[in-house]
Automatic annotation (TrEMBL):
Record-level Gene Ontology MF annotations: endonuclease activity
Domain of life: Bacteria
Keyword terms of this UniProt record: Endonuclease, Hydrolase, Nuclease
Domain Putative restriction endonuclease: 15-164
Protein name listed in UniProt: Uma2 family endonuclease
């Protein structure tokens, strides 16, 4: 395999992708077998993703504690983890935050495992997040997609999209704004998830 994978003449397979060094894979995604560099992510972008993941993980943990009548599903939350949407032609994205069913130590994350996927929008990723990834995540059957805008304070707006009625295109269920709405997120599916704006602030916590 050529070492210059950005100039490969043939689509990349999953085995070839997994054979790349981890530091090389960290900064790329694969779309229909073609390697693409990930967009720039500044500290506020990454901290907003981290805060969102924290809030979702806390809600998932509370759901497990409060769940009655049988064993609740195990949910874990990650940031910037490799997500295989489909293998042929290979498409691998690295969402800013993702809630998914718990996996074994050697299992890779696929779209079938994902409950909620989220992207933090920056000036370098706007069209990629709002058009390309939105279409890909819907096509892959991921039930919920969150698009988060941020500023120097933290999250400023959250768009919530979902698949309805067996469709593979998203319907927008809600859009919240920090200056208008009392909370950033208020979901009942796939588990109760209420996130306050203060939870998505990026300033250091005392």
């Amino acid at each position: 395999m050529t070492t210059n994978w950005l100039e490969r003449p043939n689509p990349l397979s999953l085995d070839e992708y997994l054979a790349l060094a981890e530091d090389a894979r960290a900064e790329i995604e694969v779309v229909d077998g073609i390697v693409t560099l990930r967009e720039r992510r500044d500290r506020a972008h990454q901290k907003t993703a981290f805060r969102l993941a924290e809030a979702v993980e806390a809600a998932a943990a509370k759901f497990r504690r409060d769940h009655g009548g049988g064993e609740p599903p195990c949910v874990e939350v990650n940031t910037e983890v490799e997500l295989v949407l489909w293998e042929v032609p290979l498409t691998v994205r690295k969402p800013d935050a993702v809630a998914h069913r718990c996996l074994g130590p050697y299992e890779g994350l696929t779209a079938a495992d994902v409950l909620i996927v989220a992207e933090i929008v920056s000036r370098w990723s706007d069209s990629r997040d709002r058009i390309h990834k939105k279409g890909e995540y819907a096509k892959a059957g991921i039930p919920h997609y969150l698009i988060v805008d941020f500023d120097e304070i933290g999250a400023v707006a959250v768009e919530h999209y979902a698949l309805l009625g067996g469709e593979r295109t998203y319907s927008r269920l809600a859009i919240t704004h920090r200056d208008r709405d009392p909370c950033a997120l208020n979901l009942s599916d796939p588990f109760t998830l209420r996130v306050e704006w203060r939870e998505l602030e990026v300033a250091p916590r005392g």
